[in-house]
Amino acid sequence: xxxxxxxGWSVAALNSAAFGVLVLDEKRVVWINRFLEKTLNKKxxxxxxxxxxxxxxxxxxxxGSEQTFQVSQKKSDDIWLRREHVQTGESDVYFFHDCTxxxxxxxxxxxxxxxxxxxxxxxxxxxxxxxDVITQLLDGHIxxxxxxxxxxxxxxxxxxxxxxxxxxxxxRSIKRIAFFLKDQLRWADQIGMLDKHTFLVILPExxxxxxxxxxxxxxxxxxxxxFSKGDGRPLSFSVGLAEWSKGDTTSKMLxxxxxxxxxxxxx
Length: 267
Hints:
This protein is of the alpha+beta class. The chain has two domains: 6-103, Beta-Lactamase, CATH 3.30.450.20; 120-257, Alpha-Beta Plaits (2-Layer Sandwich). Helices cover 37% and strands 23% of the residues. The protein has helices spanning 8-16, 34-40, 44-47, 57-62, 100-118, 131-148, 167-184, 208-214, 221-224, 250-256, and strands spanning 19-25, 28-32, 68-71, 79-87, 92-98, 152-160, 190-195, 198-204, 236-243. The strands form two sheets. Strands 2-1-5-4-3 form a five-stranded antiparallel β-sheet. The mean pLDDT is 85.
């Protein structure tokens, strides 16, 4: 039998604890601490000696099927408790730990995960990385080049289309261009969209001279076929190319690729 008069220091400690304590003897309340009194908005004297039953409100709250459960509070925010059961030779002792902060953090993490899932990292038409993602990757490559002096180049390919072009024809054309780029560029190259007409290609471990050799692909038959006569074709294209040099930032490299490369000079 639980003796609340014994070991007065331990009872005092449990009464001051920031968790709940409930002691039962054959489902009869023997003792509760002040934390649980406050949580249930009940006095210990009103509960001690009572036999908990399935219809009893306190029993429903404290001894329900859920290990973690919510308790409504009249004058403050609701709290969440996690129940722990310890069976002694004479009594059933239940500890109720306040896990409100953990539940709030967990709910916030789940909300942020949903928000993250809703944020599509890819361009909805081409499936390429969107501007935010590709520029973040560029930031990382520039940091590595700054630290290890790795060569790095950046390529821009911009396509001009007829004004007032039918949206479905434009989508079909830009998808064909995206397929060409994925097929022709190297596996390590990373492709994203600068805007709806412009592709941005990160060329890791590539200096300007090596990057220039890739420009020949834009004069080959596979690329020129994208401009064949018919509806839904681009009118022209331009290419910009820049190599990272000491002191360059992401914004500086994006500015450097605005200058068009004269492809005729490569032949």
